[in-house]
Structures are given as C-alpha cells and as structure tokens.
Amino acid sequence: MPNSMEQAYLRKIQMSGGSTLIVSLPKEWVKAVDLKKFDEVLMVPQPDNTLILMPYKRSAPNEACIEPSSRATADEVIRAYISYYLAGYDAIRIRFERPLPELAQKVKDSIRRWLVGVEIVEESSTDIVTMCLPIHASLPLKSAIERMGRIASAMQKESLKALVEDDRSLAQEIIVRDDEVDRLYHFIVRQLNLAISNPLTLVSLGLSSRQDCLGYMLVAKSIERAADHALAIAELVGASKPHDFSSVGTIEEVGKLSNSLFEDALSALLKGDIRLANDVIIRVYELAKRVEDIEVQLLYSKRNVPLAILVRSVLNNLKRISEYSADISEMVVNISVAKPRMTVGPLSP
Predict the structure, then answer these.
(1) How far apart are CA 202 and CA 191, in angstroms?
(2) Global pTM?
C-alpha cells in the first residue's frame, strides 16, 4: 500500500444533531500521527479557502546533535550549526569526540557573531548545548527586514565616504556592521522556514500564504548581498584613493543614484507600493546604461591603470546593488498579486 502521507482522501460531510457538520479523519493518517480519543487537532483556515489540519500536541523541543570529528575545522562545525538553526531546530547540541577547547571557543564566538536568539544553556569539556529562542513576536518579520535594509543602506553611503576620504577607521566599522546584517538574514530565513512548516508561525509573522515566504527569503538575500557589495567597497579603502576630482564626482554620482534606488525599493516593499516598485525597475536599467557609458570612457581615458581599476571596481559594486534593488522591487509586484483559489479535480482511484 502506498505511503499514507502521499495519498489524498475524499470524505463526505455528515450532519450530527441537526446542525453540526462533521467529517471523519483518515484512519491511516490518525495512526501515523498517533491521535487518540479526546486528543485535539488544530485547524487553520487559509486565504485560498483551504483548511490546514494538524495534531495539536505540546511536544518536547526539537533537538539536533552535531558530532564533528577531531579533524573538523571551526568553519565546518559552524556551517553545520547554521544549517540546523535555519531549519528551525529548538535545541542544537555539539558533541566533540574529545575536549577541544580552542575549537569550541571559535564555534561559540561564531554563534554569537552571526546568529540571533541563541543561548548556550549547557556546556562541558565535550558538549555545547544551545537553545534557539522563539523571539519572532518581539522582532516581527517586516521590522527585521526594515532594520536589515537600513543597516545595508547606511553601509552603502558610508563605504563611499570612507573611500573618498580614505577613512580606514570608518571602513573598519562598516566591516563589523556587516555581521549584524548576516545575523538578521539568518534570523529571517529561520523564521520563514518555520512559517513554511507551521501555519501558526505563518500567521504570527503576518503572512497570508506560504508562497510569500519564498518572496521574503529572496528579499532578505538581496539585502544581504547588497550589504556584501557595500562591504567590498569598504575593503578597497587603503588600497588606492580616487585622488582626481573627476573620479570622485563619478563615484559619488553613481553612489547616490544606486543608494536612492535601494532605499526606494525598500520603501516600496514596506508600503506595498507597486507604482514605486515599477519605477525602481525602470531606473535600474537607466543606471546600468550610465555605468556602461562610464566604463567605456575609462577604457579609452588616459587615467593611470590602478585608478581606472579602482573606479571600475566601485562602479561594478554599485551596479550590483542597484540590480538587487530591482530584484526586491520585482518581489513587491509578485507578492502583491492575489493568490488563486485552490481547486481540485477528480481523484484517481
């Protein structure tokens, strides 16, 4: 017999007591989820008029265990940890083969640096146990995205300021700030993954459908990548300086245009402004053409080669930021479209 979880069941609605409508639950599903008499089930109506039905049981936290070998690096362990964090596990245990204090400290530092809402609740010479706190209520999805976007936008402005003024201290601040963007990105993806698997989390995040989760994941990734390009500009500080007036003016001009597109894309997302989103998409194409024209001028100019390489690298990063602004704007349009009502044809025998 096929796996009951892969089947579709058709049931007729019955009437009980003259006014109450009832429907029976499939025996195979009841057995698979271990439901008994007087157990509760949770029913969550969906915007497309479907109904999600699931067991309502207060179970122990979902726990994952990572058991790295003694040859594992800190990067390998933290990558495994982040994958479980993003998947939505409540408790994550790291169990080393033997005491490795230096490796354990690097892993703990990375967890604190890149992840939101993680607490170390137990620790021994070979074990680290962490709890991932359900804090989405105190940091709503759209607030987290707005905060992430503001940090990325400030990074863009200040990376150009640091480059033009050769301010290495400011550049270092931007590099540190990128960690906060990564923390928020991981947090948002975790919440969206939980929303996909849990309709209650979906409702608590203020989303109308699971399809929206994919859209917001792409938005979060676009903001994270835009911050990475701002970081790339900051990392150029000290390598060379755009010392002539023409280069400074070009960089500042394109930088302001790119940042304006990014902030408008975020505004369109938070306000649900489709007109503004479409305007951003058009302006991104115009900026791309402007950058291409500048690159042609650089190719045939008599500027020194290191300066031309620097200006072209900065322009490329600014262009990529504007392209991520277009990606965000496209998601605004996609998310705004009403989801079709689900219909089901005849079931196969």
Answers:
(1) 9
(2) 0.83
